[in-house]
Amino acid sequence: MMEKKGLSCYSLKGNLCYTPNKDEFCIIENGYVVCKDGRCAGVYETLPEKYKNFPCMDYGDRLILPGLVDLHVHAPQYAFRGIGMDLELIDWLNTHTFPEEQKYKELDYAKRAYRIFGEDFIQSATTRACIFGTIHTEATLWLMEFLEKAGMSAYVGKVNMDRNSPDNLCEAGWRQAAEDTEKWILQCKNLKQVKPILTPRFIPSCSDELMEALSKLQKRFHLPVQSHLSENLGEIQWVRELCPDTSCYGEAYDKYQMFGGECPTIMAHCVHSTEEEQKMMKEQGVFVAHCPESNTNLSSGIAPIRRYLENGICVGLGSDVAAGTSLSMFRVMAMAIQCSKLRWRLTDQRLAPLTVSEAFYLATKGGGAFFGKVGSFEQGYEFDALVINDEEIRSPRKLTVKERIERLLYLAEDRHIIAKYISGREIFSKEA
User: Across residues 49-77, what is the average pLDDT?
Assistant: First the structure.
């Protein structure tokens, strides 16, 4: 057996599946994937002689997949998932999100809530994530340290909000917001796997002065940025009114150099992005976090993901809890396919629905690219892996590995995950 938490050299044997590109699965039945010092050393039908002295965990007929990547999730919202789904974005924020996030000023409450989120998150299929916290530095740091101790890998953001926010969830002016953010960044310096990401909630909640200050912090510390973009029609109109000097929502970030380019950027949703905005995203390498379940629940619409892929825009998937109701990235993959079918049928038949391999790619290598060489079993990629026991999903049919993978998107649950690895570290294993 490999050392439980440390880096080591070993191989896993089972039915391997990954997507080197969006158009095809690479499947090796009864094959081997080799981990060497936290990275993938290759996949093989027969284990090469040079690796035969490595410990080998034989998982038999189990499925072995790359870890899944969640590019957009709100940790404090986990407490009220499945609630308020009759509302649209702004009303939902005011009715449910903001009152809940105010509570995280009290560290004891934040610890109880984040422990629940963290424990479920660890047991999920997600190995990498970009996570929103709240405006509260102490609570956000506690969440980061909790995930770090568990061996998870993530970017976590202390949220910034200094305008158009409830009194109890509004930072005390842009200067104080910037000072608190800088202090938090410095407090994170000893963390290795869980790193800070600048997180202006969205343009309506951040003053021009605060955006300018965050831009300076971004350049000083070379941090990535995460925020929201073109999610809801009312939100877009609000941005037009707040930023009359910009031609599109994206430009309201770009004027502060926080929209791709030298600033790694994730923008969640992009449901209603204009052609101009899409051009900016492509040229500047902005990642779209596609959140199909939340876009549905809050009646925001269906993002044209096929168009983004055809235009070479970087796309991954996000659970967007709690507008999305589950941490399961399998569920998000299924919803991405289903929503694309509805858009194709009802809105634009020029844009073909997503395929299973495309959805799988977005949840692995597509979103993983934000973290570097992540989300594949190709040589040199960080060794993030899931071992799945799908025996409980009973069928009288003899299924191919590809069929079993497709079935997982619609039927998988956390209990089917029997082992999880991140950068070569064993996060948990349920079988001896």
Answer: 97
Q: Which residues pair with 132 in a beta bridge?
A: 74, 157
Amino acid at 218: Q
* Residue owning tokens 């770009």: 254
The rounded Cα 399 to chain-centroid distance in angstroms is 30
Of the CA atoms within 13 Å of residue 112, those in its CB half-sphere come to 7
Residues 178, 295 within the same domain: yes
List all residues 6 or more positions away from 86 whose beta carbon is below 8 Å from its beta carbon. Answer: none
Contact 17, 25 (CB under 8 A): yes
Whether 86 and 207 share a structural domain: yes
Report pTM.
0.97
Tokens (6 digits) for 173: 């002016």
User: Does one domain contain both 42 and 126?
Assistant: no
Strands (E), 80-223: 126-132, 153-157, 159-160, 194-196, 199-200
At a CB cut-off of 8 Å and minimum separation 6, what does 72 contact? 130, 132, 226, 266, 268, 289, 291, 318, 319, 320
Q: The tokens of 198 are what?
A: 């600048």
- Write the single-letter amino acid at 163: R
Q: Give the CATH number of the domain where residue 47 resides.
A: 2.30.40.10
Residues linked to residue 160 through DSSP beta bridges, in sequence order? 200
**Rounded CA separation 399/42 (Å):** 26
Helix (H, G, I), strand (E, B) or coil at 78: helix
Decide: 336 and 328 in contact? Cβ < 8 Å.
Answer: no
Query: In the chain, what percentage of residues exceed pLDDT 90?
Result: 97
Write down the mean pLDDT value for the chain: 96
Q: What is the DSSP string of 24-75?
A: EEEEEEEEEEEEETTEEEEEESS--GGGTTS-EEEEEEEEEEEPEEEEEEEG
Q: Which residue has the tokens 């073909």?
A: 352
What is the extent of the structural domain holding 156? 68-371
